[in-house]
């Protein structure tokens, strides 16, 4: 009897291989051959699941965002209270360890590619922290209600400022302009002054 293949699992394996390859080689140097080599399969098998490079890249992007989201939600579950959760969410966006650094690099490569690739730019996962913004707004609003964040400020503006600050700090960390510790101190100062 032939072995049944779970096609979603297989697609996920190839998307994961793309992310692993992009971590090492860069997204620009990752294609069907590199994904196939990373996954230990033929190029034809990868193309069966992702018939075009565009579909391969989009599959990798969706997988990458799932990895980032899973990691973030695991850390959020351990935080108590909306202000602490907001801080965890923001700090998790910093490239603070090997895994988050790799994920940030690959995601930044996707963001850069989306500037010139319309199909990729059309993917909601390529636009940055769009799905985090509403969550962060709600955390800020809840923290303001309980008095752990400065009241009276527009929660959407506070969330936008925090995400923008963290995005800039993340780029500074990767470029070697700041250490992750210095970036965290800047974020601490921001939070300590009521955001």
- The CATH topology turns out to be Tetracycline Repressor, domain 2
Assigned CATH superfamily: Tetracycline Repressor, domain 2
Helical element count?
Answer: 10
Give the averaged pLDDT, no decimals.
90
How much is the radius of gyration in Å? 19 Å
Structural class estimated from helices and strands? mainly alpha
| CATH class assignment | Mainly Alpha
Query: What CATH architecture do you see?
Result: Orthogonal Bundle
The level of helicity is: over 70%
What is the tally of beta strands? 0
End-to-end C-alpha gap: 62 Å
Keywords: DNA-binding, Repressor, Transcription, Transcription regulation
InterPro entries: BetI_C, Homeodomain-like_sf, HTH-type_TetR-like_transc_reg, HTH_TetR, Tet_transcr_reg_TetR-rel_C_sf
Domain HTH tetR-type: 17-57
Protein name: TetR/AcrR family transcriptional regulator
Detail the topology: elements first, then pairings:
Blueprint: H1 7-25, H2 32-39, H3 43-49, H4 53-77, H5 82-92, H6 98-114, H7 118-121, H8 132-146, H9 155-175, H10 180-192
Protein name: TetR/AcrR family transcriptional regulator
InterPro entries: BetI_C, Homeodomain-like_sf, HTH-type_TetR-like_transc_reg, HTH_TetR, Tet_transcr_reg_TetR-rel_C_sf
Pfam families: TetR_C_6 (PF13977), TetR_N (PF00440)
Overview of the structural elements:
- Pfam families: TetR_C_6 (PF13977), TetR_N (PF00440).
- With 195 residues, this protein is mostly helical.
- The chain has one domain (7-192): Tetracycline Repressor, domain 2 (Orthogonal Bundle).
- It is built from 10 helices and no strands.
- It has helices at residues 7-25, 32-39, 43-49, 53-77, 82-92, 98-114, 118-121, 132-146, 155-175, 180-192.
- α1 (7-25) packs across α4.
- The longest helix is centred in the middle third of the chain and has 25 residues, at 53-77.
- The relative contact order is 0.11.
- The model has no long low-confidence stretch (mean pLDDT 90).
